Amino acid sequence: MGSLLSACGLKKKKKAEENRHLRANDREFNFSFQYANNAIKTSRYNIFTFLPLNLFEQFQRLANAYFVFLLMLQLIPQISSLSWFTTVVPLLLVLSITLAKDLSDDITRHKNDKHVNNREVEVLIDGEVKKEKWMNVQVGDIVKLENNEFVTADLLLLSSSEPLNLVYIETAELDGETNLKVKQALTVTGDLGNDIQRLAAFKGEVHCEPPNNRLDRFTGTLTVSGETLALDNERILLRGCTLRNTEWCFGLVVFGGPDTKLMQNSGKTVFKRTSIDRLMNVLVMFIFGFLAFMCTILSIGNAIWEYQEGESFIAFLPRPDGANASLSAFLTFWSYVIILNTVVPISLYVSVEILRLGNSYFIDWDRKMYHVKSDTPAQARTTTLNEELGQIKYIFSDKTGTLTQNIMTFNRCSINGKSYGDVVDFAGQRVEITEKTEKVDFSWNPLADPKFSFYDHQLVEAVKQGSPAVQDFFRLLALCHTVMPEEKTEGELYYQAQSPDEGALVTAARNFGFVFRSRTPESISVMEMGVPTTYELLAVLDFNNVRKRMSVIVRSPKGRLILYCKGADTMIYERLHPSCSKIMEVTTEHLNEYAGEGLRTLALACKDLDEEKFAEWKQRHHVASTAMDDREAKLDAIYEEIEKDLQLLGASAVEDKLQDGVPQTIEQLAQADIKIWVLTGDKQETAENIGYSCNMLREEMKDIFIVAANTAAEVRKELVNARKKMSPESGDEPPIMKSRLWGKKSQVVEDEKVDGEYGLVINGHSLAFALQKDMQLELLRTACMCQTVICCRVTPLQKAQVVELVKKHKNAVTLAIGDGANDVSMIKTAHIGVGISGQEGMQAVLSSDFSFAQFRYLQRLLLVHGRWSYLRMCKFLRYFFYKNFTFTFVHFWYGFFCGFSAQTVYDEWFITLYNLVYTALPVIALSMFDQDVNDRWSFQYPQLYSPGQLNQYFSKMAFVRILLHSCYSSLILFFIPWAAMNDTVRDDGKEIADYQSFALLAQTCLLIAVNVQLGLDTCYWTAVNQFFLWGSLSVYFAVTFTMYSNGMYLIFTSSFPFIGAARNSLSQPNVWLTIFLTTILCSLPVVAQRFLFIQLKPTINDKVRHKVRQSKAMPLPPPRRFPRRRISTRRSGYAFSHARGYGDLVTSGGFLRIPIKTRPTIFPRSETPVADSTPQTYRAIYQESASS
């Protein structure tokens, strides 16, 4: 029974865990706790729930529910004035189209789930290692992973093939970082090795925290043979990671499937609807009320008419038994509900789906969003959100892999007061580096990495000439690091760095002749200008977040005792010898210059040590390193003693390569008044650097606030101080606009005026406090005052919480863009989710609404496709409501002339075909192809985007204007033909003032008038528009003459009663004069109003279209601007991984106990990201358009 309920999606949710207890190799014991297995589910429906759930979602559109109600009314003969199939066929069509689309989407999700769940992994079962599907893996199982395999579930690492039971994992799917992390097993489990019998006999018990979304924390204990050992995050391998450079490892499953931290961070799949959809629901409610009001007026009129005049007609219109004026009025009310139902036409929703589908295909087919290198086209993965792309106010972006390529290159350096890396011409002027710029030839160095590129020939000449300062600089880079080398064959070196920054620096030293070859716990071997040299490694003073530097102490072959140190310039400068003041001034200028270009900088220094003082220091260092209490604090104090009176060597500058066109894209989006928030798992310094590189953070900003407090009170204080500085008049209470919609209260925080531009940087620790319920509005107020917000060290769930905060309390449309599994939750939370198909797998793409290969395509998606889609949708709705209200109001006026008898003013066939044939295709063509200006002009004037953010094209007020316009038009379309035909005779003297002739004239006037209005609304004429417009009018006249012919009347007498009406009426000049007059009177106010507004109060669209008409040519692409240098008062921080380094590991000796085996590398030589330093050139979308 439970399985059946589960299949139906009705299974009762189990009680939340308080802690988890499991035993290795004991499925029976673990099953008693009913832990989730390892199967995942991202699909929304199953075979039992698809139809009811999907229909439930569709009937959230009130119009769909309304048409079901209307269908029921039409089945009652006493009140039905139209056939039932006129409602049921369009309704079924709409529901079927949506069902088919949602079914297709969910089948794709089911296939993806099936693919993941059916992956195979080796599991230890009954003493044997067997292949098992991922979905069948249970908590407590021991699994075996091999190199380059995905981690199956959240595992406790037991043992590995590597020395010291280490494993290397790539966590790109979790935190976006592609540099490898190190995990280490406990010694007691590491001794199990790969002995299957001992592993099968292992009965360790784990007590740990319940499933949660904290990626950076794990708390638990392992009990083995009565001994209890502490477990932390360093022992856990998380699902979503990839095993790298490790031959094999064994792990114990702690959390499976939905309980894994990856899935806990994924967020729920929500049913997304656009703001226009939500507005439509409100308008439909109003229309229902308005419809009821009109029907009430007409039914009251019927009651009065029946009471006063009804007796006169009983002779030839006898009443049924028991009928009276009250009953007649009641029945008339429901008859008019059916007749006037065109105020909410079902064809509207059919047309909307077609329109959205067509605009989705335009995105898929856009060659300017196709990435040739990866063969990746843009893809609209949903067809229901296109117009919302034209209303985005806030963009939430990941950093690594989204804004950047996560490829570090050695770009510039300052050595002994001289800057290297620029290319200058004969006049000494700086020259832009392009693909044609001559590279430095490293062929003299057989160990150089061929992918490394550098352009300043002076530096390599200085190295060759033996400059002591230059050689000391690169010697430091070759010695002061924690990189692990691997040399498969002679000369083929691969560096395994904890961060790409370190890899880039060591690779630079390698190419300039100082090649790091190998290391032992006691030595480092390098090749110095072709000479093998081994340094004795005496100590590694490791990096941490407080020190922001690392040092090594080595003894050269000549016996020289040296300390090499590199780190954040602020940390190094505090420890320099006073004699370095002059070189420090020059280096500071260079550092400011590098930081102004967004490069990640480090300062480098060294110091000769005295043997006796070092021996004494070494003893105190040993005592501190073996202390049981406050070990880190004692070591930091010891490090401080020796890291002083340093001699400055220079500074390095590494570029974290941005994706092509990122700065230009951000600049364009900023001009469109779109605010960009960067939410990244990376460290603060890195995020700030990228902020400057992308022009999100600028020196021109009045202030950039850094929130990095450790308590809730301090965070609140910093946020309040920042807000008061930006807006001294702002009150303590946020300006909230309360509203109630659908019975739900909502609090919208209004924008507050700020003079100037500001930036905000907040770290994950502070953000956790700021997102608390009592402080989140303070965070929102402060952040929304800033032009740029950067949140660093945030978890995937915090990303979603930030998006949800803005989404909930700001009347704005949000977009989230990312490329990794760590971005999935915010992509699902935002109104629009965009996935970048990059280096970090396809998780983000699979959860997104739109996807493409490069961040730069976002500006085309929003400023072109999004704006056009919004413009087209709004024009479509305005015109659709206009033509249907006009159509319906003519019925209303006619009621006063037909005794309120619910007689239709038009022929029944015209009523049936009006929305389905006569007016369907022209409005579809308008809404598929119309554009106010082309894509070039859209990029030239990003301000054209702002009307969408303000809902200027379609809103409640716009709807009221449409209502009034329709009312005016309907008065013209009814009373002008009525007056023209009243007591009118033909040329031959015969009377033509009959019902059928009047109906034909009224419907012809209506059709021509709404088509003229369509022409006035069309900005961009195509052959398709012309064909559909004239074709629809031709079809109308052809169908009219056919249906009103003698032949149709003779064949279907009861269905085609209007015999001869067309040829009799349309042959009269006064009929055509009446058509012309009504058309002019309907169009005149529209033309006059537009003329006056363009002259007196032109919109941004009017101004740009005027410029387009005046311009004789397309706007030229903007000239390629060389990045403007800025002198910065702020320099980038320590450009290394946030985690503690490998210092303890490289000096432990343990990592050499097992011979290092030849292992496959992460990247082939040709794809080494660290060494790939081809120059970064930005290409604006304008240039791309011109070239394509």
From TrEMBL:
Its cofactor is Mg(2+). Mg(2+) binds at residues 398, 400, 819, 823. The keyword Transport applies. GO terms for biological process: Golgi organization; phospholipid translocation. Its EC number is 7.6.2.1. Pfam families: Cation_ATPase (PF13246), PhoLip_ATPase_C (PF16212), PhoLip_ATPase_N (PF16209). It catalyses: ATP + H2O + phospholipidSide 1 = ADP + phosphate + phospholipidSide 2. It is found in: Endomembrane system; Membrane. The active site is at 398 (4-aspartylphosphate intermediate). Residues 23-88 form the P-type ATPase N-terminal domain. It is a multi-pass membrane protein. Belongs to the cation transport ATPase (P-type) (TC 3.A.3) family. Type IV subfamily. This is Phospholipid-transporting ATPase. It comes from Triplophysa tibetana.
